[in-house]
Amino acid sequence: MHPVLIFLFALIAILLFTAKFRLHPFLSLVLVSLLTGILAGEPIRTIQAVTEGLGSVFSRFAIIITSGSIIGLLLQKTGGMSLIASDITRFFKNPLLALSFLGFLFSVPTMCYILAYVIFIPIAKELSSRLNYPPISTATALALGAVASFNLVYPSPVIISAAEELSANRDMLILLGFLTTVPTSFSGYLYARSLGKAEVSGMNEGGVIREKTIVKEKKDLSQENGALQRTENRKPGRFEAYAPIFIPLFLILFEAVLNNPNTLFTFLGNPNVALLIGVLLSIFSGRVLGLPMIRVQVEKAIKRSGVVLLDLCGGGALGATLAMTGAGEALGKFFLQFNLPHILVPFLVAAALQTVQGSRVVTMLVAPSLLLPLVPELGLPPEILILSMASGTFMISHVNDPFFWIFGELAELTPSEVFRSNTLGNALMGVVSFLIVSGIYFFFY
């Protein structure tokens, strides 16, 4: 079967398994990987590709994602997140801009934009109630800020994966990612602000019903937080709150700037090591909880990260299998025959993957594998190619994207409101990001 037809089969199969049959993403991705390899006439090589793809992703992300989950949960439980959030909202004055920056700031160190959103949505709702902002506006500002940095800023999992696959210059990727993500995030803030000008109320009947029936564990989580706050009068100081986040980021950035392979900072600045240092610092700041509670929270964070890792491993399996079939090269040549600008090809490939299967990290695991054979023909610098693909991951968030439902349920919005806020807001940021990356390429390369 032609590689492009195999690719289309994979997309349709993923859509059916995840959206129609509601099969778990990990199982969906692994099953589609196996079926894709069988269609390509390579069943034996497919097994090897699937297992190697799974193992490769786990080895790259197990420490990073688990560490980020532990840091985020411990800082949430100790009140460190609340302290930082209060500082930022005081500093910015503008509550929507503050929420956008909160999402932007915490999405990368926690290694999960969903986690950043879940942690700070209570603050968004409180500001909405206190300052009479529409809930759709505050929730959108927070969510779009979180997604923007997660999609574009090193050392986010989506960027690390692509950088290793395509051998990108890390220093340049950090610089260009920052230059791209700041205006992209600001465009998300402006869109969230525009939503506030319309007479929209998130507290509608459907939202209230959903809030009552979402999950009982939300209520349990609130009770747990309340219990922690009642039983512990002490909270971490500012250094203890900020250190688990900013010291790892400093180590990673300093090592990138230093760029000397024979120094201690090469070891300390490795994202795996830097984030493990963040874990130790978060445990130290979490001593106010007591050792038994720290153990409980660490175990909870590890379980949470395990689910995420399984999904990513499934994406690694699919990426390795599609690369084996030659689908990426065939797909790229299919786009190139229309004389499209070469920089548009990685954007379209990533957008197609994202729209069909819904996970941004899976998209950025699969897309580089698909496009790797086409890198010489495209003639794009690896950093530009990565950021073009990353721009495509903003497109299109809909019902097969888990964040689509998490965003709406926690903000108490109807599906139509989620389409208008989350889906359109992300699409806007994707276009803005792509235009910025294109401008950087055409003017500076």
Q: For the terminal residues, how far apart are their CA atoms? A: 39 Å
Biggest beta sheet attributes: none
Strand-residue proportion: under 5%
Low-pLDDT runs of 5+ residues are 199-223
Structural class: mainly alpha
Number of strands: 0
Number of helices: 22
The tally of structural domains comes to: 1
Order of helices and strands: HHHHHHHHHHHHHHHHHHHHHH
Give the integer mean of the pLDDT values.
83
Radius of gyration: 21 Å
Global geometry: globular
Helix residue percentage: over 70%
What report would you give on this structure?
Keywords: Membrane, Transmembrane, Transmembrane helix. It holds the Pfam family GntP_permease. This is Gluconate permease. One of its GO terms (molecular function) is gluconate transmembrane transporter activity. The chain crosses the membrane at residues 28-45, 57-76, 96-121, 133-153, 173-192, 239-258, 273-294, 306-327, 427-444. This protein starts with a helix and ends with a helix. The longest helix has 36 residues, at 43-78. It is built from 22 helices and no strands. It is mostly helical. The relative contact order is 0.15. The protein has one domain.
Descriptive keywords:
445 residues; mainly alpha; 22 helices; 81% helix; 0% strand; globular
